[in-house]
Amino acid sequence: MVDVTKVSTKGQVVIPQHIREELNLEEGSQVVISRMKDFVVMKKISITDLKKEFEELTKIGEKRAKKLGIYSEEDVVRIIHEGRKKRH
């Protein structure tokens, strides 16, 4: 089923009632929104402990950075400059 909705002057979009009911979306429910070319993708998420989630994401980021040899802010700046040189 395809539904059509409008964007309000405040940028708000109404999610049709049957979709809200199927996904159990209530006031205050969290969703993540992403753009893929000319598509807007919305996914229901449930983060009960934002601090814990941030800590877990930070750990993932730290592991990835170490794997790439990034240990400091200077490393980040160096990598940015190297990337810019390669483009020119």
Layout of helices and strands:
Elements: H1 17-22, E1 30-36, E2 39-45, H2 50-67, H3 73-87
Overall description:
With 88 residues, this protein is α+β, with helices and mostly antiparallel strands. The chain has two domains: 1-46, Pemi-like Protein 1, Chain: D (Ribbon); 50-87, no CATH class. 44% of the residues lie in helices and 16% in strands. The chain is built from three helices and two strands, in the order H-E-E-H-H. It has helices at residues 17-22, 50-67, 73-87; strands at 30-36, 39-45. It has a two-stranded antiparallel sheet. A hairpin with a 2-residue loop joins strand 1 (30-36) and strand 2. It is elongated. The N and C termini lie far apart (48 Å). The model has no long low-confidence stretch (mean pLDDT 89).
Strand order of the largest sheet: 1-2
CATH topology of the largest domain: Pemi-like Protein 1, Chain: D
* Overall pLDDT metric: 89
How many beta-strand elements? 2
Total individual domains: 2
**In the CATH classification, which architecture of the largest domain applies?**
Ribbon
Highlighted features:
88 residues, two-stranded antiparallel sheet, Pemi-like Protein 1, Chain: D, elongated, 3 helices, 2 domains, 16% strand
Question: Quick gist of this model?
Answer:
The protein has a two-stranded antiparallel ribbon with strand order 1-2. It has 88 residues and is α+β, with helices and mostly antiparallel strands. It has three helices and two strands, in the order H-E-E-H-H.
